[in-house]
Description:
By secondary structure, the protein is of the alpha/beta class. The protein folds into two domains: 25-137, Transcription Elongation Factor S-II, Chain A; 149-455, 3-Layer(aba) Sandwich (Rossmann fold), CATH 3.40.50.10880. The protein contains 20 helices and seven strands. It has helices at 25-47, 49-56, 58-79, 94-108, 121-137, 149-158, 160-175, 182-199, 222-225, 234-244, 251-254, 267-281, 304-315, 320-335, 355-358, 360-367, 376-383, 395-399, 425-432, 450-455; strands at 229-232, 257-261, 287-292, 338-342, 371-375, 407-412, 443-448. The chain has a seven-stranded mixed beta sheet with strand order 1-7-6-5-2-3-4.
Amino acid sequence: MAAPAANETVHGVPPSLSAKVVGSFAYFTVKDRLPTILTKVIDTIHRNKNKFFEEYGEEGIEAEKQTIGLLSKMRNELQTDKPIIPLTDGLQDTESWNQYLERQQKLHGDQEPVSWFKSPWLYVECYMYRRVQEALWLNPPISDYDVFNEGKTQSYFESQQAVMALCTYTEGISKNLEELSKNQLFEHFDKLLQVSLWGNKCDLSISAGQENSQKTSPIDSLSSLQPFILVNDTNMVWSTLISAQRPGQSEKTTGVRVDIVLDNAGFELVTDLVLADFLVSSGLVHEVHFHGKCLPWFVSDVTANDFQWTIRQTMTANHRWMSKSGVKWNTYLKEGVWSYHDHPFWTQPHEFCDMAADAPDLHATLQGADLVLFKGDLNYRKLTGDRQWDHTVGFDTALRGFGPAPLCSLRTLKANVQVGLQLGQAEKLTSQDPDWMTSGKYAVIQYHDSKSEKKD
């Protein structure tokens, strides 16, 4: 374990990033980005007023009005730093959210209420998205309306050229799979892992819902992006997959399984599906479990509906290799080679080191994987607890015991937490590019395996 860094507290765990640090990225997010996202949500609901009327009559109009009222109230609470209030919608996760609020209150002590600017940024940002859902759920018949759906579908359609290029590239690989040497297989794996990594640039919550799609072929730009990968553990990820192969035994009982904890819908999801397709068609992996969100989340995160919709759209595309890919993906799902799962834990504010205690069933599920890929920034923030870690602290230290299986974070940097860097690397980056931690320009492929640590 790395030595405690200078800014760590006595217990070796630094404080959470928070908007109480004026001028920090967390402060900017809570002050500007979150109210902008809420305003867009309110506008979206209002714009769909006629649709609600056509579907539900006067009841739909009333629900629209009430929902907007609740969201406007929350926006005001946020902007004036009011106390965080308990949820009242009585859903399966309501109690756990309210218990989390009580825990936060105990940490704060009696002097100061838990409020928007004075609490951990990770907590209040997750809480805002959960309150958006509460506003809808308290107002049937529009309870199931996905306020972020328009942006997600737009992102997919605006990335068509890049999707076509990607499906054409993978079709080229699949024609020659039998003849590929191990080195060639690794080269394709390396490229598609990087495509999935850079797919994470297309994130609508960082751009507060502004158009953010992939226009060019991602394969062509990989070599120019290479210098921006700050930590690259691809070789370790590859070794994990290769060592998980169990020759001479029945695939049914011992097949290699990879879990992908998804981030954004749209182009990024396509890059994840393309990577998963390659893993299966190359024989490196026998099943892939995808984990998404059980409610609309962080503007562009994947829900079950987004997952199914993306595969359907790709199947029916007017492009030979796109539709062929979509049909193949659909077959994987039907045959159980691919499966989609969601769990309330993914849409709660807990850091992942709490998973074993707070969601033991999910933790046990992940233990069944040979490798877990965590996509994107929010997953990285939860892996590391979204804390003020020194940049040279080891990834293993920041995970604080979390490691149900060998894991890898594929993440473009959009929040000011990053661990596992070399001595002096962060200082050099800051002098060259002060926004390196939040611009989405830099990335990491960061690996951890708690089992290999125990062997050492």
